[in-house]
Write a structure and sequence with these properties.
single chain; alpha+beta; PTS-regulatory domain, PRD; 4-stranded antiparallel β-sheet
Length: 524
């Protein structure tokens, strides 16, 4: 059992004694504690009925008061919030879930029309043997690789029966030490992984983290990977019913709207130190590539900097060069500029601000390149990731868009999607290193990391640091801290795991250690 520190603190703040707060918070959240009856409180804390009723009354009154201590005077501090400019939020229509299309997508690699596949499926149905479609496909592929084009009913029966026996033998026995087996099965091939990187298609300067560094990123539950990427798929038709996925120009426009565009991408920045102003010389070729106009750039700079942007060359509709003076927020301020010129420091600060200013695109999406898959469908590969913002764009197929940022997936799609992402990323990384690890070991790691409803790292600040066993936590890192904390609060270790039993020198309750054998001599 693990004492929930937040729950214990809440109970102590309400006036419940530390001893009783500790017992009530033992593996219980606040939502579990507040619904306890007086009888349950008495049983947990070992109290008389009147004392338990008093604690129960405190819990009830706390809930009614909205979670504030009515006996204590409170001071309300009013803080003025900064005004934040927010863009208009677009509401997208909820995508319909097409069951048939999803099943077709899942079974896209299953050759159900193959005669070998059909023979195996028919034999399994006749023998009342339950095997998955994926397993039938793998067996069929193995048979085809041996040069066979079809099977007789007798051969199919023999193969299916043998596969069922092997499948049964591959299942885990009760009390098997699956954690140790998983650690060995991933750790041993992991020592062969090289510190190499994977070249990103179409971009010569980007290498995607692969191999051992990527595995470490995944199991450490890093908030942001070293090289976050996305594959953004688009819908087959746009809002007007015209083809979108097969239209390279339309997808290219979408990519341009997603990719972050800074001032440096579309203009040459010249700083006139003597005259104390900055000139932006717009590059038409880059503006066309980013699908922007000079007037649009001027408008966005004016709103972002809150300064007057003068047209230095060209017309108001098609400016070629823009002039920006620090401190000049409107055109009338130009009259007083000679009496009160901007300082050199203000000029440099404005230059840095202009350089890093994002004029267009989604935050954190540094590059967006259009790619084409084997089906002739265009999609967008990005350097950088922002799943929630990208999903707001019209035309993006949210059901297929994917990112390698597991924490983003958890925040936007939930814990089940994050669990699947951990499995997918580990499989891709191991396959990229040409290593074969049974998927069940990866499932075990993903289950452990997500079992508490959030993505936890396998380490001191995650799974290992929150184990129920004191000795298991102490054996990993910061031994003294764990033992001292456990001694202060009177924590108990039931010695149910592996590490704690090894420490005290007794057999673990797994495998052969799960069986107790007694000899009872016959009475003579």
């Amino acid at each position: 059992m693990v004492v929930k520190s937040a729950t214990k603190k809440k109970l102590m703040d309400m006036g419940v004694q530390e001893e009783f707060s500790h017992k009530l918070a033992d593996d219980r959240k606040w939502d579990d504690v507040k619904i306890l009856t007086p009888g349950e409180i008495a049983q947990i804390c070992g109290l008389a009925s009147d004392e338990a009723t008093a604690i129960h009354s405190t819990l009830v009154s706390f809930g009614k008061s909205g979670g504030s201590d009515s006996g204590n005077a409170t001071t309300t501090v009013v803080r003025r919030k900064k005004l934040v400019r927010r863009g208009k939020k677009t509401e997208l229509i909820l995508q319909n879930y097409d069951t048939e299309a999803k099943i077709t997508h899942i079974n896209r690699d299953i050759g159900a029309d193959d005669p070998i596949y059909q023979a195996l499926e028919k034999a399994a149905e006749k023998e009342d043997i339950q095997l998955t479609k994926r397993l039938f496909e793998d067996i069929s592929e193995g048979i085809r690789s041996r040069g066979k084009a079809k099977l007789t009913p007798a051969q199919a029966k023999k193969i299916v029966v043998g596969a069922a026996e092997q499948f049964k033998r591959a299942s885990v026995d009760p009390f098997e030490a699956v954690g140790i087996v998983t650690a060995q099965s991933i750790g041993e091939p992991g020592t062969q992984m090289t510190m190499r990187t994977f070249h990103y298609a179409g971009v010569a300067t980007v290498n995607v983290t692969q191999g051992l560094p990527r595995i470490i990123e995944i199991v450490d539950a890093r908030k942001t990977p070293n090289t976050p990427t996305m594959n953004i798929y688009v819908e087959e038709l746009d809002q007007k019913g015209k083809p979108l996925a097969a239209n390279e120009v339309a997808v290219q426009k979408l990519a341009a709207s997603l990719e972050t565009t800074t001032t440096q991408d579309i203009a040459d920045i010249d700083v006139e130190v003597a005259q104390r102003y900055i000139t932006l010389k717009l590059r038409n070729s880059h503006l066309k590539l980013k699908n922007m106009s000079g007037a649009e750039v001027r408008d966005k700079l004016s709103r972002a900097l809150r300064l007057f942007i003068a047209v230095d060359d060209g017309s108001e509709a098609k400016p070629k060069s823009l002039k920006i003076i620090p401190g000049v927020s409107k055109e009338d301020d130009l009259k007083d500029i000679s009496d009160n010129p901007p300082t050199y420091t203000e000029l440099l600060q404005l230059e840095e601000k202009i350089k890093s200013l994002r004029l267009k695109g989604v935050k954190d999406i540094a590059r967006a390149n259009v790619q084409k898959n084997n089906d002739g469908e265009f999609y967008i590969s990005t350097i950088g990731s922002n799943l929630s913002k990208v999903s707001d764009f019209a035309g993006v197929d949210r059901s297929r868009t994917y990112t390698n940022n597991i924490m983003e997936i958890h925040d936007y799609l939930g814990i089940e999607a994050a669990r699947q992402a951990i499995i997918n990323e580990m499989i891709l990384t191991l396959e990229g290193a040409r290593l074969d690890v049974d998927v069940r070991h990866l499932l075990m790691v993903a289950d452990v990391m997500t079992s508490e409803g959030e993505v936890r790292a396998i380490g001191r600040h995650g799974v290992s640091g929150t184990k129920h066993s004191i000795l298991a936590r102490a054996a990993f890192e910061v031994t003294v801290n764990h033992l001292l904390q456990a001694g202060i609060i009177g924590e108990r270790d039931n010695l149910t795991g592996v590490a704690e039993n090894i420490i005290v020198g007794q057999p673990i309750a797994l495998g052969t250690g799960s069986v107790e054998l007694f000899y009872i001599p016959e009475n003579e």
